[in-house]
Amino acid sequence: MRPLFHPAIEDVRPEAILHALADPVRAAIFARIMGAGFVEACSAVSAVGDRVIPKSSLSTHFKVLREAGLIRSERHGVEMRNHSRYDEVNARFPGLLIAIINAYARSSAPRAAAQ
Amino acid sequence: MRPLFHPAIEDVRPEAILHALADPVRAAIFARIMGAGFVEACSAVSAVGDRVIPKSSLSTHFKVLREAGLIRSERHGVEMRNHSRYDEVNARFPGLLIAIINAYARSSAPRAAAQ
DNA sequence: TCCCATAGTTCGGAATTACAGAACTATTGA
DNA sequence: TCAATAGTTCTGTAATTCCGAACTATGGGA
């Protein structure tokens, strides 16, 4: 198990962020990490919506988010803690993450929520 | 040649927009359409940066942008005019498009441009 | 009207990427 | 040392992407 790779903030690319968050499952995971006090174990995300995500897929999703520069993962005993890198990313790309999270919130709302 | 499909604004999904703009070539094309008076023929985009794009790929890129709801394409004689749907999209997902375009502008700048 | 040039689209095969089950590794606790 | 838990990696299959070649559509002459 090779050590986890985290890009430096100046190496974070918009295309990687957009690609990572273009998947609704990953966007939901990221939104949850941002919302839930900025820390969450992988195992806490066994399902998104009513869809169960196999753990190999989950692992890949976290890897994509990590390598896009959106989260920082560190081992804590047997589990993984995932911190959002929101502040760093927002400083580099102002407004990007909020706009994306809001867009998903709007589109999943029945009609014009997140107003 | 089937008629071009344009989604209604309420059917536009954030994942489609992010997927469309996660490709730097498409993002550059969209930025150019937005910048260049909101109208541009496909053939005006033979290259992005120093990279020449084959026309079959170009056609697909425009199709992805169109079906994501980002542009509206209409035939004008022998050529195609591509209008940005910025206003509609921005009304539905406020700040999303600007943030994305700005992010690309920042990342391609040598150091902290688009300030 | 017929033909040609221009602008885009569609087809098809190769290359790449994504998904998820199975096997593996790492850590903790009994 | 063994079992349990949490994640990762491997591997084969499925889905996407890319781009050259062939095709379609429109307009402008001769």
Automatic annotation (TrEMBL), chains A, B:
Query: Which regions form coiled coils?
Result: none
Q: Which domain of life is it from?
A: Bacteria
Gene3D superfamilies per the record? Winged helix-like DNA-binding domain superfamily/Winged helix DNA-binding domain
Read off the SUPFAM superfamilies from this record. Answer: Winged helix' DNA-binding domain
Q: Which InterPro entries match?
A: ArsR-like_HTH, HTH_ArsR_DNA-bd_dom, WH-like_DNA-bd_sf, WH_DNA-bd_sf
Q: Where is the HTH arsR-type domain?
A: 16-98
Protein known as: HTH arsR-type domain-containing protein
Origin species: Methylobacterium isbiliense
Supply the source organism's classification: Bacteria, Pseudomonadati, Pseudomonadota, Alphaproteobacteria, Hyphomicrobiales
